[in-house]
Design a protein that fits this description.
Blueprint (H helix, E strand, L loop, with lengths): L10 H4 L2 H23 L7 E4 L2 E6 L3 H7 L3 H35 L29 H25 L4 E9 L2 E9 L1 H6 L2 H32 L1 E3 L3 E6 L4 H4 L7 E5 L2 E2 L3 H9 L5 E6 L3 E6 L2 E6 L12 E5 L2 E2 L3 H8 L4 E7 L7 E6 L2 E5 L4 H6 L6 E6 L2 E2 L3 H9 L6 E8 L2 E8 L1 E2 L6 E2 L2 E4 L5 E4 L3 E3 L2 H7 L15 H10 L25 E3 L1 H4 L3 H25 L7 H15 L7 H30 L1
Antiparallel strand pairs: 1-2, 2-3, 3-4, 5-26, 6-7, 6-25, 7-8, 7-9, 9-10, 11-12, 11-24, 12-13, 12-14, 14-15, 16-17, 16-23, 17-18, 17-19, 19-20, 21-22
Subcellular location: Endomembrane system
Keywords: Hydrolase, Membrane, Metalloprotease, Protease, Transmembrane, Transmembrane helix
GO molecular function, one term: metalloendopeptidase activity
Length: 614
């Protein structure tokens, strides 16, 4: 019952254009109030304005910075390390943005991708489609920590390099902290050495990366180790008008028993349902109550324009004229037939229709792969029905066979392009990320691009997410998530992984929004209670996630970001060593050129598909 892709992406529906409109209206009213108070002289002296943003200034804390700055050799060594890291990240960000812009221009079909919508660049819960309001406390905490350590790093290195500080503070958009700042004295900043200035600008991102490592080390270690998956099958979604919906089963419920037999985890649910004969089963929810469920074979996930033409919510009533009511009955009726005639009750309530479709693993053929070498370039979906002599009903079955394959192994691959059956002899390549053979395909999980279920629930991969965070269990990311840096890379994708082709059916935004029901606490930290442990896990998750984002973003080599300042001082250092009469104009040409390139790349990355579509 691993559906691979979401049946319904509900967050954008809840937090769509209407909410964005209200947020913009509220922002304009707030801005008008700020302007009115400023013009009336009602704002305190320590409050400044920059558009709708309030800046709160203070001179407190300078004595503390002077004390912390006393081990100057240590802080200079620390910041020198940060300069090296920042330079590597700057180059990486430059290359990444240019490549992202090129991909955006060459792939106008990505215009519909929710990840590329401009509102999803903003780390604002409720406005960003992937950040639910329930994650707000963790996000605000992580942002505050990130801003404090970032600007604190600048302030600390100012004192290490004997640069005076006029004031420090935080920038607020209404009640949301959107920035922090340290205002160095202009004259003493100009008097500092070029190396001192560079270390000062790099100190903020260095601290952000250090906090990232600390937060994730705590999360992946003792905190995740104190969390376990609760017994039962985790219900992540319920298909509309499905048997589960009619029975009152809701997202975030756990199915803990079927007809009185305990269900320990997601994998057991299919076995328990298959063991029950008849069209009705009794399901226990959360170990508390039982409900009767009348079964029918429902499409719970479907690829767009897939080879079956089925959509989410369609009901399969018969296969080759044989009436079915269970998932097991569906596959039994298909048997070894590579094509089957399905009797379908459309989700829109229309008359039943019949459609002959291939039953197998739906895949897209990757460029320059072994299979493309035989089929030739094509954008058409290929439904693989046989692999090396084995009958294939789903991509999961094909994936298992590929995991046991070897490089240079010769296999026969047969299946359908539309209504036409093709067969190819393929020599597998070495897989670039595993010790197996490589066919050169991009999967569409399920059977022929659809997933079916006889009660209509979509299971939440609670164990896999916990394994990624350092808890017990296995994840589909294999060796990538076995290393500390690999885990960080995967965790950065979790809030959007359900729509980025990561093969997970749901995004993960922390232990919030009701998914706490899928987990329980254990060990020493468990004594503090579920609420405390989940809160700590959320704070660490978002603190690590936001700090690394702040670090990378501030390394973009464009003004007014730290990367732009480091680019200037580094360019000055290089130009001053050249056998030419170096001028500020030369430095300005380099920094302005790179900055404009970065800005243009960023705009094209966000709006390139829309521009091409028009």
């Amino acid at each position: 019952m691993d559906y691979g892709s979401p049946a319904v992406v509900s967050v954008p529906e809840l937090f769509g254009s209407e909410l964005v409109t209200w947020v913009l209206v509220g922002l304009l009213l707030y801005w008008a109030a700020v302007v009115g108070l400023r013009n009336a002289g009602k704002l305190p002296e320590y409050v400044g304005t920059q558009g709708p943003v309030l800046t709160l200034h203070t001179k407190r804390g300078r004595v503390l910075l002077d004390r912390l700055a006393r081990p100057k050799r240590f802080w200079r060594a620390w910041s020198n390390l940060g300069v090296g890291i920042a330079l590597v990240v700057m180059v990486s960000m430059f290359v990444f943005l240019i490549r992202a812009a090129m991909v955006s221009l060459s792939s106008p079909q990505l215009v519909s991708s929710p990840v590329r919508q401009p509102r999803n660049v903003l780390v604002i819960p409720g406005v960003n489609d992937f950040l639910p309001l329930s994650a707000t406390p963790g996000i605000v905490f992580g942002l505050l920590v990130g801003l404090v350590v970032h600007e604190g790093g600048h302030g600390l290195l100012c004192r290490v390099e004997d640069i005076d500080i006029d004031s420090m503070g935080i920038a607020m958009l209404a009640v949301l902290p959107v920035g922090a700042f340290v205002e160095p004295d202009h004259e003493s900043s100009k008097a500092a050495s070029r190396g001192g200035q560079t270390r000062m600008f790099a100190a903020g991102v260095t601290n952000n990366f250090a906090i990232t490592i600390l937060a994730f080390a705590l999360l992946f270690g003792p905190v995740a180790g104190s969390i376990a998956v609760a017994p039962g099958a985790a219900v992540g979604g319920v298909a509309p008008d499905s048997p589960a919906a009619d029975a009152g089963i809701e997202p975030n419920d756990r199915i803990t028993a079927v007809d009185g037999t305990a269900v320990e985890d997601n994998d057991e649910l299919a076995n328990r349902l298959e063991a029950v004969e008849g069209e009705q089963v009794t399901v226990e929810l959360n170990g508390e109550r039982t409900v009767p469920v009348d079964r029918s074979v429902l499409v719970t996930a479907a690829m767009t324009d897939g080879p079956t033409g089925l959509s989410v919510g369609d009901e399969i009533r018969a296969v080759d004229g044989r009436t079915i009511a269970t998932e097991r009955g569906f596959f039994d009726a298909v048997g070894d037939s590579e094509r089957a005639t399905l009797t379908i009750a459309p989700a829109d309530g229309g008359d039943d229709i019949e459609r002959e479709v291939p039953i197998g693993a739906a895949v897209s053929i990757a460029e320059d792969g072994p299979l493309e070498g035989e089929t030739g370039p094509t954008d058409e979906t290929f439904v693989i029905t046989r692999f090396d002599g084995e009958r294939i009903h789903s991509y999961e079955a094909l994936g298992s066979l590929l995991e046991n394959s070897e490089p240079d192994q010769q296999v026969t691959v047969a299946g359908y392009f539309g209504d036409e059956r093709r067969s190819y002899e393929v020599t597998l390549d070495a897989h670039p990320q595993a010790d197996t053979g490589y066919l050169g395909i991009r999967p569409h999980p399920g059977t022929a691009g659809i997933s079916v279920d006889d009660i209509g629930v979509q299971l939440y991969p609670a164990e896999e997410y916990l394994a990624v965070l350092g808890g017990d269990g296995e994840s589909r990311f294999g060796g990538v998530a076995d290393t500390f840096l690999g885990k960080i890379g995967v965790v950065l994708l979790l809030p959007v992984i359900g729509v980025t082709g990561g093969g997970m059916p749901f995004n993960f935004a922390g232990f919030t929004g009701g998914i706490q029901n899928f987990y329980t606490t254990q060990g020493a930290l468990g004594a503090f209670g579920d609420g405390t442990v989940f809160l700590l896990a959320n704070l660490l998750f978002w603190t690590g996630w936001i700090n690394i984002q702040l670090g990378f973003f501030n390394c973009v080599p464009a003004f007014p970001l730290d990367g732009g300042h480091i680019l200037r001082t580094s360019t000055e250092a290089i130009v001053s060593r050249l056998p030419i009469d170096a001028t500020r104009g030369m430095v300005r040409v380099v920094t302005t050129g790179i900055g404009l390139t970065m800005l243009l790349s960023f705009v094209l990355m966000l709006f390139g598909p829309q521009l091409l579509a028009t």
